[in-house]
Amino acid sequence: MEITDVRIDGGKPFDWGKTSGEYAKYRDIYPEIFYRKIIDRGLCTDGQRVLDIGTGTGVLPRNMYRFGAKWTGTDISPEQIEQARLLSEQGSMNIEYFAVPTEELDFPDGSFDVITACQCFWYFDHEKTMPMLARFLKPGGRLLILYMAWLPFEDEIAGASERLVLKYSPGWTGAGETRKPIGIPEAALRYFEPEYHEEYDIMVPFTRDSWHGRMKACRGVGASLSGTELQQWEKEHLQLLNEKAPESFEVLHYAAMCILRARTISSEKQRNDNYP
């Protein structure tokens, strides 16, 4: 499904379905500490029902399945959901998946203890989705927003790969990351109150092949370039890695998490803002 959003990449169309195979193979890269920090906050664990919006290939539900929560994953891309189902079946995991835009979700009120959004929160129409997600949560339920990005100004290999993406997709808004808390729009604060945030550095291991695959699976490359452009990008990127990278290496990333608690009606009435 092709997506065009003026907020993202200057409105350049992209389609995650074009890169679902690489996404499934190369983007399951979060280190163990990424998941442990979630469990340490008492989220996504045994006895909880969790909705993962923008689930992609189900990376978060599949890696956290072992902690006992009951997971549901949704994504706008049917191809991503197909990969998520396949990988979950291979792991004998009972996870429900639905191919549907977040803005069109329909669950009964109070269906979930936690809603997660990993690497996807900025894609949504927040004015439309925030009241809806608040309704889906049980009283006091949490919205957990997660993010991880390489640091191109500090990591030589990441910086070189990023510059090559920008050569082919100069309007790509995924470039230039620096450490910062996850930004929360005002629309979310009408329905949720901030509870916790954390940012921390992590080193993520790669081989030349897995880093090439991870870069190919990004929005500015596999999801948006034409076939001819992608072939040329791959040729140049492989040459770059042969010149700059050892066979195995680590890339400096930072990770961020933000926990928002659903507001109760009584606390909402105390605010000056009204529901839309």
Top keywords for this entry?
276 residues, alpha/beta, 10 helices, globular
Question: How would you characterize the overall build of this protein?
Answer:
- With 276 residues, this protein is of the alpha/beta class.
- It has helices spanning 20-26, 32-40, 59-64, 78-90, 126-136, 156-168, 186-189, 208-216, 227-244, 265-269, and strands spanning 49-53, 70-75, 96-99, 112-118, 137-150, 192-207, 248-262.
- It is globular and about 55 Å long.
- The two termini are 30 Å apart.
- The model is unreliable at 266-276 (pLDDT under 50).
H/E series, N to C?
HHEHEHEEHEHHEHHEH
Strand order of the largest sheet: 3-2-1-4-5-7-6
Q: Report helical residue fraction.
A: 25-40%
Uncertain segments are 266-276
Sum up the overall morphology in one term.
globular
Beta-strand residue fraction: 15-25%
Sheet/helix structural class = alpha/beta
Indicate the mean pLDDT.
Answer: 94
The rounded Rg comes to: 19 Å
Helical segment count: 10
- Tell me the span between the first and last alpha carbons: 30 Å
Oligomer: single chain
Question: What's the short version?
Answer:
It contains 10 helices and 7 strands. It has 276 residues and is of the alpha/beta class.
SSE inventory with pairings:
Blueprint (H helix, E strand, L loop, with lengths): L19 H7 L5 H9 L8 E5 L5 H6 L5 E6 L2 H13 L5 E4 L12 E7 L7 H11 E14 L5 H13 L17 H4 L2 E16 H9 L10 H18 L3 E15 L2 H5 L7
Parallel strand pairs: 1-2, 1-4, 2-3, 4-5
Antiparallel strand pairs: 5-7, 6-7
Helix pairs in contact: 1-4, 1-8, 6-9
